[in-house]
Design a protein that fits this description.
The complex is a heterodimer of chains A (about 675) and B (about 250).
Chain A (H helix, E strand, L loop, with lengths): L15 H8 L5 H4 L3 E5 L3 H13 L2 E5 L17 E2 L11 H11 L6 H21 L24 E2 L5 H18 L3 E4 L2 E9 L2 E9 L5 E5 L2 E4 L20 H8 L4 E2 L4 E7 L22 E5 L2 H8 L13 E2 L1 H5 L9 H13 L11 E4 L1 H14 L7 H27 L8 E10 L2 E2 L12 E3 L17 H21 L13 H19 L6 H15 L6 H21 L11 H25 L23 H4 L1 E6 L8 E6 L14
Helix pairs in contact in A: 3-6, 3-13, 4-5, 5-13, 11-12, 15-16, 15-17, 16-17
Chain B lengths: L2 E7 L8 E7 L8 H14 L21 E3 L2 E2 L21 E6 L7 E3 L2 E2 L2 H8 L22 H11 L6 H5 L6 H12 L2 H4 L2 H14 L10 H5 L7 H16 L1
Parallel strand pairs in B: 1-5
Antiparallel strand pairs in B: 1-2, 3-4, 3-5, 6-7
Helix pairs in contact in B: 2-7, 3-5, 5-7, 5-9, 7-9
The chains are: A alpha+beta (about 675), B alpha+beta (about 250).
């Protein structure tokens, strides 16, 4: 066996977590006051963990690059948060939530972790309500639920289209309470530049104050990385502009294994790219696929005319349209899972049927829904023989009541009225299932270094279900880490404060400063964005929605060349001793240029298709994903040994004792 | 289109600062305002000039980072949007655009268009929470039914993104809309009522300490608020404050 020890407790799956909590070490309240914890990132996972550690009595330091913890990108999550409350009495249970999540992840996640997630999910809702999170309610005053993709029950709690915002403000308020008590020191506008190891244990970080440019040393007995995902390696994504992999990648280079880097979620319904200077993509909630029909022109000449602006989509007759999802997947139609819908859109655009001036978009059409709802509404309100205009008017009202805010957002961005002309959508990078490898305690392969939320790999396998990311972030922060970290820290009660004057801190600080100097020294000709865009292009074209051996090999070469060019020819203006956004971007892009290569290597080595990872060589006759459980039922955990391409593979074999492995089919 | 930009440049908090003129070309109506600034910055880097610093992150109108005063209006000419949601189609070829940071004593400039809004954080540290432990040992979420209207009003107050447009819009640089939104979110819920008196007194005290001005009911804040936070929240705060002052 390899060096990976998942530390999954013995016993039946529903007893593992309770048993584990009963058996692990505790730190007594007086000793907690002598122990320091660093939390990097203040989103749902980091914010909730920091607040809970502080409440338990530990001394906590939080770090975030934003000007306030409340702005972490968890805030942008729209849809909702899952919990197995079974308030609707529709047959939900911890087991069912566990089962749906493992299956949705295409059987590449760890059973024990996912079961624990399902087990604590109900508690999250109780906790958030007690904190004053204003979830949506019914007229009777009780909490409302909605249904989400890939499941058969209504288990999603929500606060309109701003669930992430409300949950994050809840975690932030819990942090505020501890900041007010002096138990959390919050370092905002600070970026973690490196992890410091003393005697093989994580004992602190080197951070840059983004305002003064000062390089600072911070020590602690344990370091928690809750720094989010790495979707921005694609340049264009639904992530925030500042979202980056630096904290996780620095830890990786210091010994933390990186798991399943190629598992990326590409969300099918985003507003398409409009031009070369676009910086960011915006999501349109998955819920739109309940009523929208997805299509492209049936004939290439029509697609071409539309792209050139000579033809309008509304002018195209019904028989000249190709509702390709309904055609290929009659059973699920427009409601196939995210990975399947994304690939199908790409296939049509690659074949030349794409719309929009770029040819990289498909239609999401509400005309049929407007007519259907309009007729129904007219009928129920007594118009037995309504005119076409009346039907459309009534139908638009119904659609507005369901999706009004999304339609408004679409119109603000594109300047087109989606009630009158079909929306244009295209898949975009949204979430990364891969991340730092962690054991059952959420500890990485570096003792004392933990990873939580999107930064770790453990719960979503190869594809994440909607409304599960918020659940995982808060589960890790409120209910898992506060227990498991004590087990490790119990050995540190006599350690005392970790000095920042040791050789390890001095060396780490020196290396960080040298790296910054090297960036300035390049004195080249290209701005940072030039490299980030080029990297994004390679990633999207060759490591995106469908991958093959030849292109993955090319991607590895191209990324390596781009990285070498970056260090020779990047141009950073200004000084290191002031606020300097170019320097911040450069540090982040430098890490993406390494991660990208490992990403491609991971995709190359995984000779199967599963979830968001689709290898063209491994598909069924009709173009569906072909999973290989015999040879690839494992987590790829990569050890850094020098160059990303030389990373050493360690395999954690996945055991499925409670769920039978099946093929996913949506035909 | 081609635009003339008049941009506030300020080296650091000590520097006096001033406007600089820049021309940008090749701007498309589909670009966002911040993407237009990206173009400007890439041009500046190519010329070896320090790019303009500005705060931004999510670029979808929810994080509250962006904070530009455009032609004298917080977040620019459109309504109910943040700067990142403003698109260039709102401008025309040849326009001159004046870009400044949000102006308020309590929001000192850090560099160029970047301001320090930590005063907002400190107002929330003072009482913007319900004192409940995060142990998970709370009662079932459905054990206290909450009137739908109150839950909805609480939600609307809680949608504040903390950008500071209300302060920038106010002639007194008052933070009443922001603070009242926070106070209201909790005051409307049964969970928040227990500490309501203490909360409003502490938060208002901190708000005054930070140097924000008083409210004179002009209502500019509500008009410029990208999330449409209602003035009713200020009325509620005043009521809460009065009640707390009398009864505690």
């Amino acid at each position: 066996m390899s060096v990976l020890e998942s530390k999954i407790p013995e016993g039946p799956i529903e007893k593992k977590w309770t048993k584990h909590k009963n058996e692990i070490n505790l730190v007594n309240p007086a000793n907690k006051r002598n122990i320091d914890i660093i939390v990097v990132g203040t989103g749902l996972a980091g914010g909730s963990a920091a607040a809970t550690f502080a409440e338990l009595g530990y001394n906590v330091k939080t770090f975030c690059y934003q000007d306030s913890p409340r702005r972490a990108h968890s805030i942008a999550a729209q849809g909702g948060i899952n919990a197995s409350k079974n308030y609707q009495g529709d047959g939900d249970s911890d087991y069912r939530l566990f089962y749906d999540t493992v299956k949705g992840g295409d059987y590449r996640s760890r059973e024990a972790n996912v079961y624990r997630l399902a087990e604590v999910s109900s508690n999250i809702i109780d906790q958030c309500v007690a904190q004053g999170v204003p979830f949506a309610r019914e007229y009777g005053g009780l909490l409302d639920n909605r249904s989400f993709g890939g499941v058969l029950v209504s288990r999603t709690f929500y606060a309109k289209g701003q669930t992430g915002q409300q949950l994050l403000l809840g975690a932030y308020s819990a942090m505020n309470r501890q900041i007010n008590r002096g138990k959390i020191q919050s370092f905002n506008r600070h970026e973690m530049m490196d992890l410091v190891l003393v005697d093989g244990k994580a004992r602190g970080i080197i951070a840059r104050d983004l305002v003064s440019g000062n390089i600072e040393r911070h020590s602690a007995h344990a370091v928690v990385l809750a720094s989010g995902g790495y979707g921005n390696v694609f340049y264009l994504s639904t992530n925030a502009m500042g979202s980056n992999v630096m904290a996780a990648w620095r830890a990786h280079k210091k010994g933390a294994f990186f798991a399943n880097p190629c598992f990326t979620q590409i969300h099918p319904t985003c507003i398409p790219v409009s031009g070369d200077l676009q910086s960011k993509l915006t999501l349109m909630s998955e819920s739109l696929r309940n009523d929208g029909r997805i299509w492209v022109p049936k004939h290439e000449k029509d697609a071409k005319a539309i792209r050139e602006g000579k033809l309008k989509p509304t002018e195209l007759a019904e028989e000249d349209r190709d509702y390709y999802l309904e055609r290929r997947y009659p059973a699920f139609g427009n409601l196939v899972p995210r990975d399947v819908a994304s690939r199908a859109a790409k296939e049509r655009c690659d074949e030349g049927y794409g719309v929009n001036k770029t040819g990289q978009a498909v239609y999401l059409d509400f005309k049929a829904a407007i007519e259907r709802y309009g007729k129904e509404k007219a009928f129920t309100s007594g118009h037995k023989n309504p005119s076409k205009e009346e039907i459309i008017k009534l139908g638009e009202q119904v659609v507005e009541s369901k999706y009004g805010n999304l339609f408004e957002m679409y119109e603000k961005i594109t300047d087109q009225n989606p009630y009158k002309t079909p929306m244009m959508i295209f898949p975009a990078v949204h979430y990364t299932m891969g991340g730092l490898w962690v054991d059952y305690n959420l500890m990485t392969t570096i003792p004392g270094c933990y990873a939580a939320g999107e930064a770790n790999f453990s719960d979503h396998g190869a594809n994440r279900l909607g409304a599960s990311a918020l659940m995982q972030g808060l589960a890790d922060g409120y209910f898992v880490l506060p227990y498991t970290i004590g087990d490790y820290l119990a050995d540190d009660i006599r350690t005392g404060t970790i000095s920042t004057e040791t050789e390890e801190f001095v060396t780490a600080e020196k290396e960080v400063k040298e790296r910054i100097q090297r960036l300035f020294d390049a004195k080249g000709k290209n701005p940072v964005d030039y490299y980030h865009k080029k990297l994004g292009r390679i990633m999207w074209d060759k490591c995106g929605m469908s991958r093959n051996e030849k292109e993955l090999r090319e991607a590895m070469e191209e990324i390596k060349e781009l990285r070498e060019d970056f260090w020779k020819n990047v141009r950073i203006t200004g000084k290191a001793e002031t606020k300097n956004a170019e320097l911040e971007k450069a540090g982040r892009v430098a890490d993406f240029l390494e991660l990208g290569e490992l990403f491609a290597k991971d995709a190359l080595e995984r000779n199967e298709s599963c979830g968001g990872h689709f290898r063209e060589e491994y598909q069924t006759e009709d173009g569906e994903a072909l999973r290989d459980d015999e040879n690839f039922k494992f987590v790829s955990a990569w050890e850094y040994v020098g160059n990303p391409r030389d990373a050493k593979l360690h395999k954690e074999q996945l055991e499925f004792e409670n769920i039978e492995l099946k093929t996913r089919s949506y035909k | 289109m081609k635009l003339k930009l008049k941009v506030w440049r300020q080296e650091d908090a000590q520097d006096k600062g001033g406007f600089k003129n820049y021309d940008v070309d090749g701007i498309d109506g589909d670009m966002s305002f911040l993407e237009m600034l990206d173009v400007l910055n890439n041009n500046l880097v190519n010329e070896g000039i320090d790019p303009v610093e500005f705060d931004h992150d999510c670029r979808e109108g929810i994080c509250g980072s962006c904070s530009l005063q455009i032609n004298g209006e917080p977040h620019g000419p459109d309504r109910r949007i943040t700067t990142c949601q403003l698109h260039m189609r709102k401008f025309k070829d040849g326009d001159e655009i004046v870009i400044e940071p949000f102006r308020a004593t309590a929001f000192p400039v850090i560099k160029d268009l970047v301001i320090d809004r930590s005063a907002f954080d400190r107002i929330q540290h003072a009482g913007g929470y319900i004192s409940v432990n995060t142990s998970g040992n709370t009662q079932d979420a459905n054990s206290i039914p909450i009137d739908k209207q109150d839950a909805d009003d609480s939600f609307y107050a809680a949608t504040c993104i903390g950008c500071g447009a209300c302060v920038a819009a106010c002639k007194n640089a008052s933070a009443m809309l922001f603070t009242s939104a926070k106070v209201s979110q909790f005051a409307l819920l049964p969970q928040g009522k227990i500490e309501a008196h203490e909360r409003v007194l502490e938060m208002v005290h901190q708000m005054d300490k930070e140097g924000f001005g008083n409210c004179t009911n002009t209502g500019a804040c509500e008009i410029e608020c990208p999330k449409g936070i209602s003035l009713e929240n200020i009325a509620r705060l005043n009521r809460e404050y009065l009640s707390a002052s009398v009864f505690s």
